[in-house]
Amino acid sequence: MAEDTQEVPQLALVAVIGFNGHVFSGLKVHPDKEHLIYPLGCTVIIKSLKSGRQTFLHGHTNNVSCISVSKSGRYIASGQVTFMGFKADVIIWDYEKKEIYARLMLHKARVEDLSFSPNDKYLVSLGGQDDGSGTLRVWELDLPNRKIRPTECQTGQLKRIVKCLEIPDDDNYFYCGTTSGDILKVNLKTRLLNSCGPVKQKFSKGVNTLKVLKTGDILVGSGDGMLSLCSGGNFKTIKSVQLEGGVTSVTLRGDGQQFYVGTEAAQIYNLGYTDFKPELIATNHNSAVKDVAFPFATSELFATCSQNDIRVWHTETSKELLRITVPNITCNALGFVQDGRSIFSAWNDGKIRVFTPESGKLRLIIHNAHSMGVTAIAATNDCKRIVSGGGEGQVRVWEIFQNSYRLIETMKEHKATVNCIKIKSNDKECVTASSDGACIIWDLVRFVRNQMVLSNTLFSVVCYHPEEFQIITSGTDRKIGYWEVYDGSAIRELEGSLSGAINGMHISEDGKYFVTGGDDKLLKLWHYSDGEVTHVGIGHSGSITNVRICPNSRYIVSTSADGAILRWRYPQTS
């Protein structure tokens, strides 16, 4: 068994859709003005602003918590979070070589922020919050004695928790954004608060980020998603714009004629100083992605679903083509009807919703499809029926018309959630995988059970081999089972993972290979007949929730619990 991933060739990561929008100051423009740098999980991504091509810096063992770029652009520094009591690494990267220059291991639990000195000689790192006292200190470097000496800033009776700092080029004052929504202006030499006290204008849900422009004006990003351009003299708002999600990062391109803004909703915007109009340049789900699906026989686009929405993506460019929003409800599963005219979807409010893929218009809704949420769904190849599974364990078959539907049959054998449904190519049989430890092969003509496969696991996924004589299953026991469709007998069992449940599985169209992903965060490509891992994909920071090989076998798309979507090059296999 090729379980040891060290010995196995790695899958090439082509593109990542995602951005850790909650990371403060997580977005940076490189001094060359051509590249955007930002974190996704434990990866640092360098994205070309011209071509959109991404480069990935792998080295952290947990989520990246902060990023800094040196003034010359020669170095990138990134810090991470880890568990209490464990070392949290700071990595300095060589920008040209795109490799680790140095690894610093002094902090524990979390690196809060990083900053390079203007001459590239020093890097200052700030550890995680030890106390909530909200003290403000200026530190002097005593280089001969290798010491740094602090001086407390005198804020009098004023008590504030500071979220961000910004020092203009003249070094006379510095500005502090606070959780209370006001801005403090402190004299850098006297360490005294500006005589007028905190700036009177309050920013809703706190000031998360500040940037001083060459003009002296200040960009203020607040927790309510408002980006404001304020006058440096009196802090009056000159312009403002509402964005989706609280603003967490603002970074300038060049002198600030253009800037990029990151938000908690995993959105990245590009704005110009003069027009101040936001252009959305990157977006993603900001909670767990539940499912991924390609239309029949085409790899041009694919759909994913999550809490609040379904999104359709262009495969090659990773651009969002369509967003279908259903607020405060989670879409558990989705697929394209074979004729390409509909997207069918399963939701946790117990409804099945059918949309048109071009406009996202709601075509049909089946109310009360399942009493404990719709958890799995599939459509027949003749485009006339939908088979659904629910949290209560029922499997239901629906006939779908132009604007209406009819419940044909309810099959009640499962005792727990139905997690996956696959339909045979002739539409006369389907297989369902459930948390009750059973996979049932159903007759879709007589609506009776043909066979049942039992195992000591919560089955999460099942696939027909393209020849349809066998099925493969997986779930919480980390095993991959091969079974005979005819009589339900076990053929073989593989150790799918050493450390976590398998949540997603998909077989290539020729049946020679299949791919799995799960809680160990590894994407694995297997040879079907040999039962050996041929390639492994390392890049996810959260549990992999689902995987798909695209119809032309050029790419594998994997989704994860942290909202990321990764596209891998499908290897040239013999």
TrEMBL record:
<dbReference type="Pfam" id="PF00400">
    <property type="entry name" value="WD40"/>
</dbReference>
<keyword id="KW-0969">Cilium</keyword>
<protein>
    <recommendedName>
        <fullName>Cilia- and flagella-associated protein 52</fullName>
    </recommendedName>
</protein>
<dbReference type="InterPro" id="IPR019775">
    <property type="entry name" value="WD40_repeat_CS"/>
</dbReference>
<feature type="repeat" description="WD">
    <location>
        <begin position="411"/>
        <end position="444"/>
    </location>
</feature>
<keyword id="KW-0282">Flagellum</keyword>
<feature type="repeat" description="WD">
    <location>
        <begin position="537"/>
        <end position="574"/>
    </location>
</feature>
<keyword id="KW-0853">WD repeat</keyword>
<comment type="similarity">
    <text>Belongs to the CFAP52 family.</text>
</comment>
<dbReference type="InterPro" id="IPR015943">
    <property type="entry name" value="WD40/YVTN_repeat-like_dom_sf"/>
</dbReference>
<keyword id="KW-0677">Repeat</keyword>
<feature type="repeat" description="WD">
    <location>
        <begin position="367"/>
        <end position="400"/>
    </location>
</feature>
<feature type="repeat" description="WD">
    <location>
        <begin position="495"/>
        <end position="536"/>
    </location>
</feature>
<feature type="repeat" description="WD">
    <location>
        <begin position="282"/>
        <end position="323"/>
    </location>
</feature>
<dbReference type="InterPro" id="IPR001680">
    <property type="entry name" value="WD40_rpt"/>
</dbReference>
<comment type="subunit">
    <text>Microtubule inner protein component of sperm flagellar doublet microtubules. Interacts with BRCA2. Interacts with the CCT chaperonin complex. Interacts with HSP70. Interacts with AK8. Interacts with CFAP45. Interacts with DNAI1. Interacts with IQDC.</text>
</comment>
<comment type="function">
    <text>Microtubule inner protein (MIP) part of the dynein-decorated doublet microtubules (DMTs) in cilia axoneme. Important for proper ciliary and flagellar beating. May act in cooperation with CFAP45 and axonemal dynein subunit DNAH11. May play a role in cell growth and/or survival.</text>
</comment>
<keyword id="KW-0966">Cell projection</keyword>
<keyword id="KW-0963">Cytoplasm</keyword>
<dbReference type="InterPro" id="IPR036322">
    <property type="entry name" value="WD40_repeat_dom_sf"/>
</dbReference>
<dbReference type="InterPro" id="IPR050630">
    <property type="entry name" value="WD_repeat_EMAP"/>
</dbReference>
